[in-house]
Amino acid sequence: MNNIFVRHKWDPYLWILPSVLLMLIFVIFPIGIVFRLAFSDISRAGVVGEFIGLGNFISAVSAPVFPTVLMNTLIWVVSVVGLSTLIGFTAAMVLNQPFFGRKIARSIIVFPWAASLVIQASVWNYIIKMEYGNLNNILLNFGVIKNAINWRATYQIEFIWECAIGIIVTIPFVTFTVLSGLQSIDSSYYEAATVDGASFGQKLFNITLPLVRPSLTVSTVLNIIYVFNSFPIIYTITKGAPANKTDTMVTYLYMLAFYDQKKGPATALSVIGFLILCLASSIYMIVTMRKEEAL
Amino acid sequence: MKKLVALILAVTVLLSVAVLAMADDITLDVIIAQYGPKTQDWFLGTAMDGSNFKAKFEEANPGVKLNLEVVSWNDLYTVVSTRISNNNAPDILNIDVFADYANEGLLLPVSDYCPEELYKDFFPSFIQESVIDGTVWAVPDLASARALYYNVDLLKEAGVEAVPTTWAELEDAAQAIVDFYGGEVYPWGIDMTTDEGQAAFAYYTWANNGGFVDEKGDWALNSDANVEAIEYALSLVKNGYTNPNPATQTRYDLQDMFGAGKLAMVIAPNSVPAYIAEKGYTGVNFATASIPHNEGASSSSVGVMDRIMAFRDDSADQAARNEAIGKFLTFFYDPANYVGWVSMEGFLPAVNSAVGALVESDPSFEAWLSVLDSAKFYPTTKAEWNDVKQGVIAVEQSALTGGDVRQLLDELQAKVSAK
User: Fold this and answer.
1) B82, B85, B86, B90 alpha-carbon torsion, rounded to 10°
2) Residues of B with Cβ-Cβ distance to A243 under 8 angstroms
3) For residue A238, what is the domain's CATH number?
């Protein structure tokens, strides 16, 4: 009975076994299936055929719209992650200052995050509608404009709307990750700096930024993954139309798989997306970790 | 302790033998497409005189059980292809397409399971739409036809005296509406979305003696008539005669605008009155007319047909399964059941025996049935149809952003014929 308290070498493995099993069943196994499908011939009816090597990858990448889709994905990820980080960081700085109504302001900024993305995208879709859209209604009622404006006159403008909506819904996440980082900074650093006569800029670049870097790293890496994989905004507003010109990788591969019934190339694209994400995240992690070590 | 275990084992064995002995019932996996909010209720709820299709069928056909599922159109293709990938195809499927399944050898010929008497009841022209290499692979479950809907009051206000029948008249009418209402009312609705952009292709090319295929049935996507037709449709957009965003405004958006009195004319299916009533739009005074055509060409309606098909099972009791599938069809198309089903969501029937009862309950059916008679259907029996459908939508959308119609159609034709 008493050897129940003796530590065995395999003890820790036993404890992590449930998580490992869950990972295997719900993460590794599905990834394995996707990789298998990506190298197999899948008929439109859904029959999985033989192994065809890189055939699916070649047909996915050689599609005439693929460069456009890739470019859109790049614009989408860089603009949404970049701008939401910039704005979210600024908002976190402001919310970290004591001011009247700070609690209310902090809760208001969570709102966009609390609502589901599909609902937000649908609401924005109504706001910018030309026929009965809220934006046109408000402007017309206040006499700012005389005739309803088509807020989505070209696909470029539609894509800008999609990026803008992406930024708005991503800001809360950045704000709160950075805010938690800011709150952990000891205020004595700032007091000492103030005594030494440091300017706002000096405090920002020499105290704040280095000390929130870990939380900023986490928020940026997670953001790159979320935004890259984000589907509801684009699917709700344009569905990639016209002719895939507003598609990103994820919406494009969805349309490919479930509208065009080309599951092979679609699976290949999802493997490519997975690899791009692994690469991007690891580069970012390595670069920032090196900087941290250098500190 | 051991005795107890032995006892439990013995009882279990006995029970399983008993269950096996009872398993003479045939269970059919059935997937039904969700046509509207009432579909689920009719098949599985209480919309069939307080009961439902499944319960009534099982009561009338002892020995056959239904494992029936109603699936929304958004998920239908994914559900079916996933089940096929997992070797778990349904026994009976209700969907629109069938060529891919037939070409893969997944379907049973209709002659294997459809009772002779029922087979003769289908409209022959409908059956012809499900033939590949001389074999009938599916039966029609219902159909709908498209026509021009116009807002009588809006046209009258704007001084348009007669409903446009030709493209030139359509342009004149649209101009009159623009002149009278400014941007308040869109004269003409166009849907070039991924939802149903292929319908727009049909509306304009068929009204110009063009179309997806030539007389021999070969793909003829880049014919001069087609180029002219699509360029005409685009000119309507560019001249400001249409809804502003045809690439993202679906037919349902257009039907909503039409119901709200914001759109004067739109080509839509015969279910529009039901749609408008259900959405609660009031005060729209509308009527129907034939789809406008080019000078020298004839107007033709666009018919859309869905199907029921049976999947090969390769089990030992195939003969018994075929008989069960036949029972399912016989019960479904029995006028006592079928008439309620077709009229519930405002569709048109696929069997002769239902016509009398339907016309009796709603005289407007008669006109639609004659429209259906002259309707053309999409070439869904051709293996490349799915690529063509996506392809013409991409052509329309690329042309909307400034692409050259002839060049785009040439590329599509080359791509499709290369297969």
Assistant:
1) 70
2) 247, 393-394, 397-398, 401, 403
3) 1.10.3720.10
**What gap in Å lies between CA B284 and CA B101, rounded to an integer?**
43
The secondary element (H helix, E strand) that includes residue B8 is helix B2-22
Sign of torsion, CA A93 A96 A99 A100?
positive
Strands annotated E in A62-175: none
The domain ranges of chain B are: 2-143+304-368, 145-302+380-417
Q: Tell me the per-residue pLDDT of B196-250, one tens digit each, with 9 for 90 and over.
A: 999 999 999 999 999 999 999 899 999 999 999 999 999 999 999 999 999 999 9
Cα separation values, B377 from B96, B102, B365, Å:
12, 19, 19
Q: Cβ A45–B83 below 8 Å, yes or no?
A: no
Which pLDDT tens digit goes with each residue over A270-281?
Answer: 999 999 999 988
Print the domain residue range for A279.
55-294
Q: How far apart are CA B137 and CA A263, in angstroms?
A: 24
**Which listed CATH number (3.40.50.720, 3.40.190.10, 3.60.21.10, 1.10.10.10) goes with B2-143+304-368?**
3.40.190.10
What pLDDT digit, counting tens, does each position of B345-387 carry?
A: 778 899 999 988 888 887 778 888 878 877 899 999 998 998 9
**Residue A270 maps to a domain:** yes
Distance, CA of B268 to CA of B200 (rounded, Å):
10
Q: What is the pLDDT of residue A153?
A: 87
User: From residue B43, how far is each of B38, B39, B49, B61, B351 by CA, in Å?
Assistant: 9, 6, 11, 16, 20
Q: Do the domains at B2-143+304-368 and B145-302+380-417 have one common CATH topology?
A: yes
Torsion of CA B292, B296, B297, B299, to 10 degrees: 40
The label of the residue with tokens 């449930």 reads A18
What is the three-class DSSP state of A39?
A: coil
Q: Is residue A27 assigned to a domain? A: no
- Chain A, 244-263: which have a CB under 8 Å from a chain B CB? 244-245, 255, 258-261, 263
In angstroms, rounded to a whole number, what is the distance separating the alpha carbons of residues B43 and B40?
5
Residue type for A230, please? S
Q: Nearest CA to CA, how far is A238 from chain B (Å)?
A: 6
What was the ipTM of the complex prediction?
0.81
pLDDT at A165 (0 to 100):
95
Closest approach of chain B CAs to the CA of A260, in angstroms? 7
- Tell me the average pLDDT across B296-311: 91
- How far is it, in rounded angstroms, from Cα B65 to Cα B88? 17
Nearest CB among B84, B245, B400 relative to A45 is that of: B84
Rounded to whole angstroms, how far apart are CA atoms A195 and A203?
12
| Dist. CA B291–CA A35, nearest whole Å | 49
Q: Are B30 and B66 in contact (CB under 8 A)?
A: yes
Query: What was the pLDDT predicted at A4?
Result: 61
| Residue for token pair 């009247």 | A100
Q: What's the CATH number for B145-302+380-417?
A: 3.40.190.10
Residue of B nearest to A150 (CA): B244
| pTM for this model (two decimals) | 0.85
Tally of domains in chain A:
1
Q: What is the pLDDT of residue B171?
A: 97
